[in-house]
Specification:
heterodimer, A: 326 residues, alpha/beta, Rossmann fold, 2 domains, B: 274 residues, five-stranded parallel sheet, two-stranded antiparallel ribbon, 10 helices, 7 strands, 41% helix, 12% strand, globular
């Protein structure tokens, strides 16, 4: 990723991995709350949990490569008054454990933080097995769960702290491995369930999550050069979704493009479409993984090949605006 | 333990069986075989071994019982009602719409004494491990009991949990396996062999105790033995007979998942009184 790209309102402070934000968020929260316990499945440093475990070794329990058990252990701890944080690669923490999350966490409605690390295709060379592109779809149907996909490292830190301090139930926080633009402020207003308006505009609304928020801002810049003002919304919380912002965008922009580093099926785009279809129907289009598995490659090359970048957002936006004006 | 005390517990087990049968008949569906088979285990747990306050169900120092095999909820509900957690009359609401007595335990219904919503096999032992670790972490002295089915031991996640309990030497955790030897498709050894079971648990770092799960004295000895172990988690493999207490259905796995109708209930209760 090229560093130092400046936007009208957002400046890349330097590329940084969202996993660092997650680790820092837990550590910060743990300094103020001794109920917080860390649970690990072997890849502690890979997922940013080492920032917590090195600061609080007596509050970290290694559970080995046994994710299903880890979710149950987290449930037992939560039932005993502790606040467990468990993270591993998102492919495992969301899908290998799905039934445990459904019954032991969601049905019991327990406050446990699950980290979905290495999410998206930008995990890169490890290839398809380790690229979590279905985690949001898998979890989104579960009652009681909160799903968060922050846009950068700073926001991941803030979101993790807020998930610990303001939510009472299971929370899944999706984050990545690759260093990506870090462009929000740690002192930002961040409310779980309330999207952020990143850029105003009336020609199209681009609703994005995760790494694709920055790409959407880049696309909005390019759209501006072509005479279109795009509204960019950071939909960091995918469940519960910010219906009011979507309805407002539908009414004022009259078309909506979603952008996510995830399968198009069942993810952010589907969540937005469910609101649009029910509340105020407008033309929509989707940027995301096109119903296929990924492959090995560099993060940037993969995002480009599978169309999860500013260029694709721009192209689909132009097409959608034309469709709207027909 | 005096003969009189043992007789009292036997009587309590019988009361649990009667209440369980009545609630199953009122529900018209449910798991009769396993519920009856575990009545003696429940009698000893709730009327001898466990520390709890039925009028203060969230008393922090209480022992915790997690029913991983949520399908035998009827015997748990009967035991809780007879132990004073709620009215015995409410047992008639089993499996009814809006009831606090769900087909598998659901904490969201607010039934006193229910520690965990459970019923998807293979999950309860992990939650028990979490509770045991939490108790150690918080320097609490209560005991966690996890009730598992023998067929449930075919779930891989049970052995993930068993490994972690052994790893952390959780001597405040007692797993109780309902070893009735049968599951829905037939004998456990035909469906997917579990033996040698003692060796499996031993290899995972557990203190293994076998007992007659339908004999009060044998059960009490097993619990006492488990509570004396201060180096590792204990597993009590309770050899039970499905349908125990109703001669007509004892050992018949066809009674795993059905409830008695009115005529059968009358016949079963009569046979128990003889």
């Amino acid at each position: 990723m090229e560093e130092g790209i400046s936007m009208k309102s957002f400046i890349n402070k330097g590329n940084r991995s969202t996993k660092v934000g997650f680790g820092e968020g837990i550590k910060y929260a743990a300094e103020h709350n001794d109920k917080i316990i860390g649970l690990g499945s072997d890849i502690t440093t890979s997922v940013g949990m080492n920032i917590f475990s090195e600061a609080f070794p007596e509050r970290f329990y290694s559970l080995g490569i046994a994710e299903q058990n880890a979710i149950g252990v987290a449930a037992g701890m939560a039932l005993s008054g502790l606040l467990p944080v468990f993270s591993t690669y998102a492919v495992f923490s969301s899908m290998r454990t799905l039934d445990q999350i459904r019954v032991s966490l969601c049905y019991n409605n327990l406050h446990v933080i699950i980290g979905g690390a290495h999410s998206g295709i930008s995990v890169g060379p490890d290839g398809a097995t380790h690229q979590a592109l279905e985690d949001i779809s898998a979890l989104r149907a579960l009652p009681n769960i909160t799903l968060i996909s922050p846009c950068d490292s700073s926001q991941t830190k803030v979101a993790t702290i807020k998930a610990i301090e303001t939510i009472d139930g299971p929370v899944y926080i999706r984050y990545g491995r690759e260093s990506m633009p870090d462009f929000t402020d740690e002192r930002q207003d961040f409310v779980i369930g309330e999207s952020q308006l990143m850029k105003e505009g009336m020609d199209i609304a681009i609703i994005a999550s995760g790494h694709l928020v920055w790409e959407s801002l880049l696309a909005a810049d390019k759209l501006k050069q072509h005479g279109f003002e795009a509204r960019v919304i950071n939909m960091h919380t995918i469940k519960p979704i910010d219906k009011q912002a979507i309805i407002k965008a539908a009414k004022e922009c009259a078309c909506i493009l979603t952008a996510e580093e995830h399968q198009i099926t069942g993810g952010l785009g589907s969540a937005v479409a469910e609101v649009v279809v029910k509340e105020f129907s407008v033309p929509m289009s989707f940027v995301g993984m096109p119903n296929c598995f990924g492959e090995s490659g560099k993060a940037r090359d993969l995002l480009d090949k599978y169309g999860m970048n500013a260029d694709t957002i721009f192209a689909k936006a132009v097409k959608l605006i034309k469709r709207k004006n027909q | 333990m005096t003969t009189e005390q043992i007789d009292q517990l036997k009587h309590k087990a019988k009361e649990i069986r009667i209440a369980t049968l009545k609630s199953l008949a009122a529900a018209g569906s449910g798991h009769t075989g396993g519920s009856l088979g575990m009545a003696d285990v429940m009698a000893v747990l709730y009327f001898h071994s466990m520390k709890y306050r039925s009028k203060e169900p969230l008393w922090p120092q209480r022992d915790r019982l997690l029913l991983s095999i949520g399908h035998i909820a009827p015997v748990l509900y009967s035991s809780l009602a007879l132990a004073g957690f709620f009215s015995v009359d409410e047992l008639a609401n089993l499996r009814k719409l809006g009831s606090r007595l769900q087909g598998h335990p659901g904490r969201d219904r607010g039934l006193p004494g229910i520690e965990l919503s459970a019923g998807s096999l293979g999950q309860g032992l992990s939650v028990a491990v979490g509770m045991a670790l939490a108790a150690k972490h918080q320097k609490q002295n209560y005991t966690i009991y996890a009730i598992l089915g023998d067929g449930e031991l075919q779930e891989g996640s049970i052995w993930e949990a068993a490994m972690s309990a052994g790893h952390y030497h959780l001597d405040n955790l007692i797993a109780l396996v309902d070893r009735n030897g049968v599951q829905i498709d037939g004998s456990t050894e035909d469906v997917m062999a579990l033996e040698p079971l003692n060796e499996k648990w031993t290899a995972f770092g557990w203190h293994v105790i076998n007992c007659d799960g339908n004999d009060i004295k044998s059960l009490i000895e097993a619990y006492d033995n488990a509570l004396l172990c201060h180096t590792k988690p204990s597993v009590i493999i309770a050899h039970t007979t499905m349908g125990k207490g109703v001669p007509e259905i004892e050992g018949d796995y066809h009674w795993h998942g059905k409830a008695p109708n009115t005529q059968q209930l009358k016949r079963f209760l009569n046979s128990m009184l003889q």
